[in-house]
């Protein structure tokens, strides 16, 4: 028996002695302890891992290790074990079965290494069974070899491991009598380190001088062949990069005799395949013998498709130990995970940080950052690598299908740092391909994916502005990246993450002040919420409990979107911030949200927190917001209000504002915005429409250009309120002008407005058309508004619009439809367990009687 056979036997007996049928890395520590208990010799866990193939073997095993393991299974030493095995009578078995057993032992070790290099637990990886019929066709037909070729990170090695198990090794394997020999980089490195050539190794293991010799033997002795001999070679790309190994490999392909029973499978990266392909196309026999497969893409030279959504969700469900559906994963993340490599990065990142949510779009950026930090910024030659990646991203242009650059254009940079470039290629961060569609085939270079390219584009912007995200920084993004494109969205998201991680929150205001499109502003606002929540959960973040200040409040107050994300962000940060003034302001925003949600319980809880700071509220705000919120709370729970004192405070505030000197729009504070909102909806709820008009005019006196603000939702909020006030005062022409003006500013793409504003605008238009007896148009606007409120869960507006719809229909002959809408309203209130507060009734005075009946019915129903 040769040394390798003896080592295989020793492994088998060590497993039997340890009571293990199979082994994984976690068992190695246990075996180390068993050996020490039995022999009092310490063989480390790392050595045991190397012995069983879980780690690379950089040298032969020491005699001490072999003696210790031999003693563990009952022999005096390694020499005694070897002699005993040599003296045992060799079992009489066929040459084929002998080859099968030896190949099986090597394949098992290769398979263990393959599974351990998975990055995601092997049982969590999708088996990609759609590929199996194609591979089966190759096995059964007259082809000599096939390739599983793909870019790094596409999962070719895992696919090969699944196929080896499915076809040859599993309990229900289709072809158990075939010989499968799987060789990977671990196997080849061991052979090289032992000082053998591949030819020497093959002779030692299989007693044939070469594969050609083995083929010739079974051709002459067909009765001794009991199946097929499948050789699978994977992970040799690094070796093929050396000219001597490349030549050996080509010679090996040419030397194989034509036959029907030896099948070769090569797992190769596409850049290795680019170099091999000309050699194959140069030989008619090799071209005929090569099976490209159903999934081979001539353009990319790959036949491993990206994962589909079901395969991604299968792996995520195993990682998370629960069923993950499409709705649980953000769309950009699902797309990113279609490259299996990112699932590996996610698995590693998740082990370090448990605050990540698959529904959070920020995760895409965290994965890229984490990967590049490990593979580039903390790797050897990081300075050279970052320099190269910046230069490559700078030179890249949009090709027919991908973002890429001709290798010729960056050759001078590559020649400066050839080793760093090779390491980037091997790590799979950049990829070389052949562009075959040109007159002369040219080499091109691109990034593993476009998101990494975008990251290095963004890094160049930060360099250009000395890591200071100022107004010019965002103007550069605005002018250098086309609007309404995913590229600009990604750059803006990187910028938001950059600002928040450095706690430069005030810089983010530039996104709203500059003429970015409204959709970009809304997406940016959401992303600010995602990043701020995540950063707050990290232990060493610059954006933390101590550092959150008024700049964050300014953004939250001027961008009230009323989304669930917004509510969660406000609540999360208010519960964690240590600055009491900031916390108070967040509680006021929470109360605003609760009023619109008609949420009595949440409102009462937040009011309890505010009440403790009643005195400080007087100092922070131009009017104490607690008094205003209490008015609405009493309204919600049907308590009478002592409103005279409150009215006096509002009148006094109105006079103070009116007497103020005119100021610029930029000077309005978040405290003012929050107070003015509450005052206006209070006056409107009290039906003090003349006072409401006076208050808006006072604000206009202090801030003459407030209606022309395009970066805050406060401006359209004021306009909508003024329009509603004009309707109540029967100033219909003025109300119409407000509607036309709001229509005009919303049609200007850079105006910042939200779905909440759109819903409010529908309410205004519905009320206007109802008041001017245009019931058909009023109904259209009401239904438009209801579509927005239902989609965005704006409960207060939904009640208002349903009340409005009842009033409109009462003016038509649709009496049956009136009953249906009343049922719809009462059902909505019941399902959501809501009352019907007075402030939700924005309809005309003629509707008061109907509203009281509905409210009375609702109250009676609750009793």
UniProtKB/TrEMBL annotation:
Protein source organism: Pedobacter zeae
Origin: domain of life: Bacteria
Protein name: Tetratricopeptide (TPR) repeat protein
InterPro entries registered for this protein in UniProt: P-loop_NTPase, TPR-like_helical_dom_sf
Gene3D superfamilies listed in its UniProt record: P-loop containing nucleotide triphosphate hydrolases (3.40.50.300), Tetratricopeptide repeat domain (1.25.40.10)
């Amino acid at each position: 028996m040769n040394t390798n056979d003896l080592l295989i036997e020793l492994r088998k007996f060590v497993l039997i002695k340890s009571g293990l049928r199979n082994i994984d890395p976690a068992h190695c520590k246990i075996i180390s302890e068993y050996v020490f208990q039995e022999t009092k010799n310490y063989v480390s866990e790392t050595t045991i891992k190397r012995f069983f193939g879980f780690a690379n073997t950089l040298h032969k095993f020491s005699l001490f290790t072999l003696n210790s393991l031999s003693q563990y299974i009952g022999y005096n030493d390694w020499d005694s074990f070897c002699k005993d095995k040599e003296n045992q009578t060799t079992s009489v078995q066929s040459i084929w079965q002998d080859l099968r057993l030896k190949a099986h032992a090597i394949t098992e070790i290769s398979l263990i290494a393959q599974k351990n290099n998975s990055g995601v637990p092997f049982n969590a990886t999708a088996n990609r069974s759609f590929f199996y019929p194609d591979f089966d066709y190759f096995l059964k037909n007259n082809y000599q070899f096939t390739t599983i070729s793909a870019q790094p990170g596409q999962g070719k090695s895992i696919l090969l491991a699944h196929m080896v198990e499915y076809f040859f090794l599993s309990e229900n394997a289709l072809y158990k009598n075939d010989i499968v020999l799987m060789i990977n980089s671990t196997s080849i490195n061991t052979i090289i380190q032992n000082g053998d050539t591949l030819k020497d190794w093959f002779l030692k293991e299989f007693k044939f001088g070469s594969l050609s010799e083995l083929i010739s033997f079974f051709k002459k002795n067909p009765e001794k062949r009991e199946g097929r001999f499948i050789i699978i070679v994977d992970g040799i790309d690094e070796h093929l990069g050396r000219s001597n190994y490349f030549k050996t490999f080509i010679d090996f392909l040419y030397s194989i005799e034509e036959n029907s029973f030896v099948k070769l499978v090569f797992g190769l990266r596409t850049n290795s395949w680019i170099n091999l392909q000309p050699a194959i196309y140069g030989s008619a026999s090799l071209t005929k013998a090569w099976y490209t497969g159903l999934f081979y893409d001539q353009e990319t030279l790959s036949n491993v498709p990206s994962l589909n959504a079901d395969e991604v969700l299968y792996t995520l469900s195993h990682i998370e130990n629960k069923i993950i559906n499409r709705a649980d994963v953000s769309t950009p993340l699902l797309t990113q995970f279609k490259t299996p490599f990112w699932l590996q990065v996610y698995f590693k990142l998740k082990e370090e940080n448990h605050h990540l949510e698959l529904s959070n779009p920020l995760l895409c950026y965290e994965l890229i950052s984490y990967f590049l930090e490990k593979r580039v910024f903390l790797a050897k030659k990081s300075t050279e690598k970052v320099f190269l990646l910046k230069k490559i991203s700078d030179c890249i242009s949009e090709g027919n299908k991908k973002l890429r650059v001709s290798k010729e254009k960056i050759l001078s940079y590559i020649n400066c740092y050839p080793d760093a470039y090779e390491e980037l290629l091997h790590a799979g961060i950049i990829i070389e391909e052949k562009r075959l569609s040109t007159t002369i085939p040219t080499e091109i270079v691109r990034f593993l994916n476009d998101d990494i390219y975008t990251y290095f584009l963004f890094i160049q912007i930060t360099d250009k502005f000395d890591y200071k995200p100022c107004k010019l920084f965002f103007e550069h993004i605005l002018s250098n990246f086309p609007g309404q494109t995913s590229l600009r969205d990604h750059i803006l998201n990187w910028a938001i993450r950059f600002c928040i991680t450095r706690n430069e929150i005030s810089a983010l205001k530039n996104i709203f002040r500059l003429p970015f499109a409204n959709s970009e502003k809304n997406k940016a606002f959401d992303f600010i919420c995602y990043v701020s929540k995540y950063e707050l959960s990290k232990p060493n973040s610059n954006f933390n409990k101590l550092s959150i200040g008024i700049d964050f409040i300014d953004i939250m107050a001027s961008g009230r979107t009323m989304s669930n994300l917004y509510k969660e962000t406000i609540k999360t940060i208010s519960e964690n911030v240590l600055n009491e003034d900031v916390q108070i302001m967040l509680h006021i925003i929470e109360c605003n949200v609760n009023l619109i949600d008609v949420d009595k319980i949440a409102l009462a809880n937040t009011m309890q927190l505010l009440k403790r700071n009643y005195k400080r509220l007087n100092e922070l705000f131009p009017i104490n917001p607690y008094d205003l919120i209490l008015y609405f709370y009493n309204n919600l729970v049907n308590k009478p209000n002592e409103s005279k004192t409150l009215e006096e405070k509002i009148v006094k505030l109105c006079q103070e504002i009116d007497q103020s000197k005119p100021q610029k729009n930029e000077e309005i504070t978040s405290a003012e915005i929050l107070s003015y909102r509450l005052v206006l909806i209070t006056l409107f709820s009290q039906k003090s429409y003349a006072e409401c008009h006076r208050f808006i005019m006072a604000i206009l006196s202090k801030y003459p250009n407030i209606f022309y603000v395009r970066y805050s939702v406060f401006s359209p909020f004021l306009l909508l309120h003024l329009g509603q006030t004009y309707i109540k005062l029967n100033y219909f022409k003025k109300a119409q002008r407000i509607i036309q003006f709001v229509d005009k500013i919303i049609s200007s793409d850079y105006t910042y407005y939200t779905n909440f504003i759109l819903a409010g605008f529908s309410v205004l238009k519905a009320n206007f058309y109802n008041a001017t007896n245009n019931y058909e148009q009023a109904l259209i606007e009401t239904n438009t508004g209801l579509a927005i409120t239902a989609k965005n869960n704006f409960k207060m507006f939904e009640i208002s619009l349903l009340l409005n719809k009842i009033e409109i229909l009462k003016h038509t002959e649709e009496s049956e439809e009136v009953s249906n809408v009343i049922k719809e309203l009462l059902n909505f209130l019941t399902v959501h367990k809501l009352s019907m507060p007075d402030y939700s009734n924005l309809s005309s005075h003629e509707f008061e009687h109907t509203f009281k009946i509905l409210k009375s019915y609702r109250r009676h129903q609750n009793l």
